[in-house]
Design brief:
Elements (H helix, E strand, L loop, with lengths): L2 E6 L7 H16 L3 E6 L5 H12 L5 H25 L4 E4 L6 E3 L8 E4 L2 H8 L3 E5 L2 E3 L6 E3 L5 H11 L4 E6 L20 E3 H9 L7 H10 L3 E5 L7 E4 L20 E5 L2 E10 L4 H11 L7 E3 L8 E9 H13 L1 H4 L3 E5 L2 E7 L9 H11 L6 E5 L2 E7 L3 H11 L17
Parallel strand pairs: 1-2, 1-9, 2-6, 3-6, 9-11, 10-12
Antiparallel strand pairs: 4-5, 7-8, 11-12, 13-18, 14-16, 14-17, 15-16, 18-20, 19-20
The structure holds aspartic acid and magnesium ion.
The site of aspartic acid (ASP) has 13 residues, from loops.
Length: 427
């Protein structure tokens, strides 16, 4: 008997009909002789609607109460799903995050899982029931309070359950057919990817691919969980995200030829801040980024220009999520006299493109080919950064789509036909 964890995103359980459809799918898995644990997101746009409601009541909702509010969304879907399954003649039991043993730190709104003690889930399985667990939520032992894992956190719930229960498979059901070589809404000739390594998936997610929550991929990588991403609306194969046993091997230790390019990700969610006129001497970057770090912002690309010989001054630019820019500008402005720079520039009209592939390690000329493709498409590059298996560039926001299409073609990734795009957000 196999143990299968299945996660269903909000668009897969958007209304009563969808809940019944998902219940059928779960029951089929159970009927096939498997033990089934389900992690479920809130119905449709419930989380967004609850957030809007909170902000109608107050400008600054208390974090503890916000988590209390938002976790109600998953309580609704988990109970309805359990009812639907029971009405089909199969035993099912729903559990909140704390009942399922999702122990987190105390960081409301972005809590991290520190332990999983799924005794009650295991008990339900032992009694032959299907266990339905509320995604996205946990419990802190110190404060005794309910926490949430951050937007899109139900993927992480599923992976954590799969790791703790030593599941055979962790299936992530969503509203797209799997992982594509690019977002089909941006690059119509994007192709589905059958298998991708977790490190490539991490880079794509960091580059803006939204199908999987980045923390879920990290958790799966750390705990050796293989993910199977597929649509809850059809029976297509979907994508396996595997953890190589060693470089150049698959999860079983068999050799695989890594693709030079796995895919292209784009991101319009970042802004660029430039600190102009920084004295070119030891310690300046350390001080600037200490101030930035205090805001909790996640910095992505950093570029420092050569210093102008005449003045001994340099500029430092970095990108960060648009939503963090205000707080970072305020913090840098407050520290301006101590940091001793001239001015700040803020640019929220940037787009980021990331080209990802494990085969980059052993293939030369990839960056030349990328820059050539962008040049031929008449696209100016504003920033460049690289990792072992990724090259990212910043362009104007309004040229990032043209850039992605050109690069996708240049690296031979185009499908013969255009991908079918279903409605939805990928969650
Ligand atoms: N319902 C939560 C959200 O919308 C968690 C999730 O969907 O994974 O962010
Ligand atoms: Mg959701």
């Amino acid at each position: 008997m196999a143990l299968i964890v299945q996660k269903f995103g909000g668009s897969s359980v958007a209304d009563a009909e969808s809940i019944k459809r998902v219940a059928k799918r779960i029951v089929e898995t159970r009927k096939a002789g498997n033990e089934v644990v389900v992690a479920v997101s809130a119905m449709g746009d419930t989380t967004d609607n609850l957030l809007d409601l909170a902000h109608e009541v107050t400008l600054l909702p208390a974090p503890r109460e916000l988590d209390m509010l938002l976790t109600a969304g998953e309580r609704i879907s988990m109970a309805l799903l359990a009812m639907a399954i029971k009405s089909m003649g199969f035993d099912a039991r729903s559990f909140t995050g704390s009942q399922a043993g999702m122990i987190t730190d105390a960081q409301h709104g972005s809590a991290r899982i520190v332990d999983v003690t799924p005794g009650r889930v295991r008990g339900a399985l032992d009694e032959g029931a299907i266990a339905i667990v509320a995604g996205f939520q946990g419990f802190n032992r110190g404060t005794g309070d309910i926490t949430t894992l951050g937007r899109g956190g139900s993927d992480t719930t599923a992976v954590a359950l799969a790791a703790a229960l030593e599941a055979d498979t962790c299936e992530i059901y969503t509203d797209v057919d799997g992982i594509f070589t690019a977002d089909p809404r941006i690059v119509p000739r994007a192709r589905p990817i059958r298998r991708i390594s977790s490190e490539e998936m991490l880079e794509l997610a960091a580059g803006g691919a939204k199908v999987l929550h980045i923390r879920a991929v990290e958790y799966a990588r750390r705990h050796g969980v293989t993910l199977h991403v597929r649509s809850s609306f059809n029976n297509k194969e979907g994508t396996i995200v595997y953890n190589p046993a060693a470089p150049g091997q698959d999860e079983n230790g068999d050799p695989v030829e890594e693709p030079v390019i796995a895919g292209v990700a784009t991101d319009l969610g970042e802004a660029k801040i430039t600190v102009v006129g920084v004295r070119d001497e030891p310690g300046r970057a350390a001080e600037i980024f200490t101030t930035v770090a205090r805001t909790g912002a996640n910095i992505d690309m950093i570029v420092q220009n050569v210093s102008a010989a005449a003045t001994g001054l340099t500029d430092i630019s970095f990108t960060l999520p648009k939503a963090s820019a205000g707080a970072v500008i305020a913090a840098l402005t407050a520290d301006q006299s101590r940091l001793g720079y001239l001015t700040l520039q803020h640019d929220d009209q940037i787009g980021k493109l990331a080209l990802v592939g494990a085969g980059m390690r052993t293939n030369s000329g990839v960056s030349a080919q990328l820059f050539r493709a962008l040049a031929d498409a008449g696209i100016n590059i504003e920033m460049i950064s690289t990792s072992e298996i990724r090259i990212s560039v910043v362009t104007r926001a309004d040229s990032v789509q043209a850039a992605a299409i050109a690069v996708h073609t240049a690296f031979g990734l185009d499908a013969d036909t255009e991908a079918i795009v279903y409605a939805g957000t990928g969650r």
